[in-house]
Design a protein that fits this description.
Keywords: Metal-binding. The protein is mostly helical. The protein is built from 12 helices and no strands. The protein starts with a helix and ends with a helix. The structure holds zinc ion.
Length: 216
């Protein structure tokens, strides 16, 4: 991936604006109305839900544990004299949830490096080298293991419904009975496209069934 794309993705993470289903509804409500999280099929797929979805829990736990292992190995490498890591391990940043009052692992995914973490590390080592490495590890792991996987899932699902980039552009800002549509044929085409997608979602292929077929 190009460095400009990596930067764009990091900025979008920071401002919680990756293209989740809830985010897509803002531009394509007609298309995504009623859609739920592609992984569990139960909750609305908000930014926070991508990382706290039950279906991603074991993966995220693995990433979190590997992050702690990596951090400890870096600390041992840079300062073999440290013997007690309990203050570090007790930080709230290792919790996999969202919390309005405390920084959690979800905030690390966004790219935040909380002061409480840097304060502890500062006592022990040359901070910057470790922070850069840890930050990059979390970014690469959550991006590859959770976000990219989720995106290929959605892509496959959309393809099965005939939703292409071109079709999305056609449907963007579309509202029935507005004045933009001036030919009957155009109107008919747009209703057809929407109806067939809706039928697929609501009556044809059940989303959950589709997902289980895809994974089995
Ligand atoms: Zn979910």
């Amino acid at each position: 991936m190009s460095s400009s794309k990596v930067k764009a993705h990091k900025v979008h993470l920071l401002i919680e604006e990756i293209p989740t289903i809830e985010q897509m509804k803002k531009s394509f409500l007609d298309l995504y109305d009623g859609w739920k999280c592609p992984s569990c099929g139960l909750e609305d797929e908000t930014f926070d839900h991508v990382w706290t979805c039950d279906e991603h829990r074991s993966l995220l736990l693995k990433i979190k544990n590997n992050t702690i292992d990596l951090l400890l190995s870096l600390l041992i490498e840079y300062n073999p004299d440290i013997t007690d890591y309990s203050a570090l391990l007790m930080l709230n940043i290792w919790t996999i949830s969202t919390d309005p009052d405390n920084f959690t692992f979800v905030d690390l995914i966004k790219g935040f490096i909380p002061l409480e973490l840097t304060q502890i590390l500062n006592l022990w080592i040359q901070l910057l080298l470790v922070i850069i490495e840890i930050r990059q590890y979390i970014y690469e792991q959550t991006f590859k293991e959770i976000w990219i996987r989720r995106c290929s899932f959605i892509k496959e699902f959309e393809r099965s419904l005939g939703i292409t980039k071109k079709k999305k552009l056609t449907l963007k800002n579309f509202r029935p009975f507005n004045n933009i549509l001036n030919s009957d044929r155009e109107l008919e085409y747009k209703f057809d496209a929407l109806d067939s997608i809706r039928n697929n979602i609501y009556f044809g292929k059940n989303i959950i069934e589709f997902y289980s077929n895809l994974t089995s």
